[in-house]
Amino acid sequence: MSSKLLSNATEVDLSGLVPPEAVTVLLRVTIAPPNGGILIYVGPDYEMPIVANGPVWEGHVDCQPPVIYIQPVGDPAPAWRIDHVGAESEYRVAAAS
Question: What's the confidence (pLDDT) of residue 84?
Answer without folding.
Answer: 73
